[in-house]
Amino acid sequence: MRTPFVAGNWKLNKTPDEAETLARCVVDAVSGITGVDVAICPPFPALERVASAVRGTAIGLGAQNMYWASEGAFTGEVSAPMLLTCGCEYVILGHSERRQFFGETDETVNRRLKTALRAGLKPIVCLGESLDERQADRTEQVVEAQMRGALNGLSADDVQGITLAYEPVWAIGTGLTATSEQAEAVHGFLRQVLARLYRDEVAQAVRIQYGGSVKPDNAAALFDQDNIDGGLIGGASLEADAFAAIVKAAV
Ligand code: 13P
To answer: Atom 7 in ligand 1: which residue has the minimum CA distance?
Structure first.
């Protein structure tokens, strides 16, 4: 049995002050909800403030990216050891916005992923097709290539420490959600590929979140699907009550 996992990706939103306030509201709003893992991922400058707000609660802290070197001449980057000292347990890798605007590729996601696992962070690895790719009927081909690229060289043990997030690019921030059936079809497909690459037991253990315009009113239908193990939430995670409603829907 996989425990559902709901994570909030705050993207480029919230100053440290605002982030701490939101984190405290999330702590209140989700308190008492059990049977689901919860994490919030604020921007880097807010990590320590949010860490103090969630300390002693069941809410985990995550970062939105990291680099593979631990230190050196890499202006603008942050490393896994730095995230750990800020209190991070999770790190989002390969988000489509990183791929689209900041040149990330399957290969750079793979390098980050290996480093994150070695450092003891729990990675959330994002993948998903664009609208053009879906319309050209290439969804399976695209997500399989992204997954193989990201997981290249990883052992079955490594893979069991990862959460995958299927986020169709056309559903992110657009208000267009994949239907439960569309999402479930891709999640089931990803699990089959995992079983082929590793073994069925590994495929059954890996959590696959859905992301892309998840809201309180569509969350339950998505999370009810056999292969959807919670969600990676953008816009709705910036509002504590909406986020808590989504967390509840995952239980
Ligand atoms: P939205 O929930 O705003 O569509 O964003 C989804 C997402 O990109 C989460 O990583």
So the answer is: 234
